[in-house]
Design goal:
Structural class: alpha+beta
Number of domains: 2
Mean pLDDT: 85
Radius of gyration: 25 Å
Number of helices: 7
Order of helices and strands: EEEEHEEHHEHHHEEHE
Length: 262
C-alpha cells in the first residue's frame, strides 16, 4: 500500500477542461504507481498524481512515464502539457497559484488547441555523399578544389579553409531549398508550425506542426507523397499525435511564502 504521508505532494502532468474530480486510467510517474486524477477549479482541472516533494531527473524512465499519462489524457481531452518534474506541495497551491491566478490564460490556450494535434517531422539526407553531390554542382567549389589537388597541405592552408566555408555555405543553401520544398507541401495543411534547429549535418529540417484533427489523414498522405517524391535523396521521421508542448506557454512556479502553516 502506498503511504499517503510519503506521497504528500502533487505531481503535475497538464491542464484540461474538466468540472469535477475524476480518476484517469493511467499509472503515475512515482515508482509506486500512484493513481492519476484531476484537481478541478471552475471548469478547468490539473491532472496530477500523489508524489513525494522531490526533484525528478530527466531520465528516460521518467520521461516515458510522464508522456504515457499525457497520451492517455489526450484520448479524451484537449491538454496543456506541463514539463517533466513539476511538483506542488498540495492541491490548494495548484488551485490558488495556477488554476485561479492564470485562469483566463489557461482557458485561452485550451481554446487555441481545441480540436488540434501536434505532429512532428524530421528529414535527413541519406548519407554524406549528398555533400559531395552538392559541392560538385558548384563550379567555383570545383575550380578551387581542383587547384588545391596535389599541392602540399602547408601551401594550401588558407585555400582549404576557404573551400570548407564554400562547401558549408552550399550545403546550408541546399538545406534551405530542400526544407522549403517540404514545407510548401505541409504549410497549407497546418494551423501553425515551429521550426527547430537541425541537430546533425545530415538533418534537413526538424519541424513541429499544429494540425486540425480532421486534417490528420490529409497531412499523413502529404507526408507519404513527400516520401515518394524525395525518397531517393532523404528519409523522414514522422511522429504524432504528441503532447503539444511546442504550442503551449506554461511555465509553472510556486510562491512558497504564501503557503499555509502546517
Amino acid at each position: 500500500m502506498i503511504e499517503t504521508d510519503v506521497l504528500a505532494g502533487k505531481y503535475l502532468y497538464g491542464i484540461i477542461r474538466c468540472a469535477d474530480a475524476r480518476a484517469i486510467a493511467a499509472r503515475g510517474i512515482h515508482e509506486q504507481g500512484a493513481r492519476v486524477y484531476t484537481i478541478p477549479y471552475r471548469g478547468l482541472a490539473a491532472v496530477v498524481s500523489d508524489s513525494p516533494c522531490e526533484e525528478y531527473d530527466n531520465s528516460r524512465r521518467n520521461m516515458m512515464a510522464h508522456t504515457r499519462v499525457l497520451e492517455v489524457v489526450m484520448q479524451q481531452y484537449t491538454v496543456l502539457p506541463i514539463c517533466l518534474g513539476v511538483v506542488a506541495p498540495d492541491a490548494e497551491t495548484i488551485q490558488e497559484q495556477l488554476l485561479a491566478q492564470r485562469y483566463a490564460d489557461l482557458e485561452q490556450q485550451i481554446s487555441d488547441l481545441d480540436g488540434r494535434i501536434e505532429l512532428g517531422l524530421k528529414a535527413f539526407w541519406f548519407d554524406e555523399r549528398m555533400f559531395q553531390e552538392i559541392a560538385d554542382q558548384q563550379p567555383m567549389i570545383c575550380a578551387l578544389r581542383d587547384s588545391i589537388a596535389g599541392r602540399p597541405p602547408e601551401n594550401t592552408y588558407y585555400e582549404r579553409i576557404r573551400l570548407g566555408d564554400m562547401v558549408e555555405a552550399a550545403v546550408t543553401q541546399r538545406r534551405q531549398f530542400d526544407g522549403e520544398q517540404i514545407l510548401s507541401s505541409l504549410r497549407p495543411l497546418s494551423r501553425a508550425l515551429v521550426t527547430h534547429p537541425v541537430l546533425t549535418d545530415q538533418m534537413v529540417m526538424n519541424v513541429s506542426f499544429l494540425v486540425d484533427r480532421f486534417d490528420e489523414a490529409r497531412f499523413d498522405q502529404a507526408v507519404r507523397d513527400l516520401d515518394d517524391r524525395f525518397g531517393s535523396q532523404m528519409t523522414f521521421t514522422y511522429v504524432g499525435p504528441v503532447p503539444p508542448y511546442n504550442f503551449v506557454s506554461l511555465a509553472v512556479h510556486w510562491s512558497y511564502s504564501t503557503q499555509r502553516n502546517a
